[in-house]
Amino acid sequence: MRFTLREVEAAARERLDPVHYDYFAGGAGDEVTLRANEAAFERLALLPHVLRGTAKPELGVTLLGGRASMPVLIAPTAFHRLADPEGERATARAAAAAETIMMVSMASTVAVGDVAAAAPGARLWFQLFIQPDMAFTEALVRRAEAAGCGALVVTADSPVFGTRGRDERNGFRDLPDGLCCENMRDGDRVREIAFSPAVSWEHLDRLREITSLPVVLKGVLHPADARAALDHGVSALFVSNHGGRQLDTAPAAVDALPEIVDAVGGAVPVLLDGGVRRGTDVLKALALGADAVAVGRPVVWGLAADGERGARRVLGLLRAEVEEALTLCGLASVRDLEPGMVRRPW
Ligand SMILES: Cc1cc2nc3c(=O)[nH]c(=O)nc-3n(C[C@H](O)[C@H](O)[C@H](O)COP(=O)(O)O)c2cc1C
Ligand SMILES: CCCCCCC(=O)C(=O)O
């Protein structure tokens, strides 16, 4: 039995090739931001209410017209077949069982159409690194649409691929033979994902012209960028530092959240990922104005520890913890969380 996400991670670490464990676990530079994401949640205190006479709390949220049974989504992470032979198929089945949204990485090791086919009823969004070759970007969008994805999650924090010291030291550069980024197939070749500093707001405008899918902008930390994103018509903002894997010493996600929420002023939903490991972290982020959070590594750990069952276990643990924390806070619903319930005691 595994009772916490830490125990799931320990089990995953035992099963994974150490080089692959480091790829999943690691961050950029000195991993300052990686550590800060979790530490920032720990520094926040929750101030509970008492004697509210509540029933079993309501956890469900509605995002971009779709329902999730809890405010915990699956963040896009690459290369699930390094963790489990079924890879993203297993993750999607776990997401469907939990009735939550899975963001399928553009760097998935199962093509998005095959992920959708393997998990009927799964609520999928497709994550996109805009490719400077807009014709190929459009081809990716069409694949996501054909797979029934409900939104495009455009990752904006990766004009270059962050330098991760663990991968450099381990010499981890390529997927093993037999695995590739299946969405990148183009005729009889598999393209490399281009990370390009030339990608700009104009590309985002162009993307919005070629699809009617809602666009979620992921990797926003600066309030001025949040305001610009609204001007460019995004449907949701996603506060994220890429799990500490891009700009090291960028702020912890939950520390950046209040200013983004303020800048957005309720115009669109705000999501957050980075360091969410406990139900209480979920409550803190929602109290500070997030509409939902997402988890990256925890789902990979579940997958590596026990395949689909492990990913389900991770989502189940988080659900149970959110429910218990809400009850202990005297709340009937995730909607009742408000900023006054979060304190910075130290
Ligand atoms: C192994 C790994 C792969 C990732 N791959 C992607 C990706 O393909 N696209 C993307 O936008 N973000 C990617 N991310 C970032 C996650 O979407 C997310 O921002 C981050 O994992 C959240 O932090 P957490 O792992 O602490 O929950 C990746 C993160 C990890 C750990
Ligand atoms: C060369 C493919 C890289 C996929 C990107 C995965 C990612 O975002 C990560 O943080 O790792």
TrEMBL record:
Binding residue positions for FMN? 76-78, 105, 127, 155, 218, 240, 273-277, 296-297
InterPro entries attached to this UniProt entry = Aldolase_TIM (IPR013785), Alpha-hydoxy_acid_DH_FMN (IPR012133), FMN-dep_DH (IPR000262), FMN_HAD (IPR037396), FMN_hydac_DH_AS (IPR008259)
Record SUPFAM superfamilies: FMN-linked oxidoreductases
Query: Does the record bear Flavoprotein in its keywords?
Result: yes
Q: Which GO terms describe its molecular function?
A: FMN binding; oxidoreductase activity
Give the UniProt keywords, A-Z.
Flavoprotein, FMN, Oxidoreductase
Q: List the cofactors.
A: FMN
Q: Which PROSITE patterns match?
A: FMN_HYDROXY_ACID_DH_1, FMN_HYDROXY_ACID_DH_2
Give the residues annotated as active site.
Answer: 242 (proton acceptor)
Matches recorded under Pfam families: FMN_dh
> Hey, which family's this protein in?
Belongs to the FMN-dependent alpha-hydroxy acid dehydrogenase family.
Supply the name of the protein: Alpha-hydroxy-acid oxidizing protein
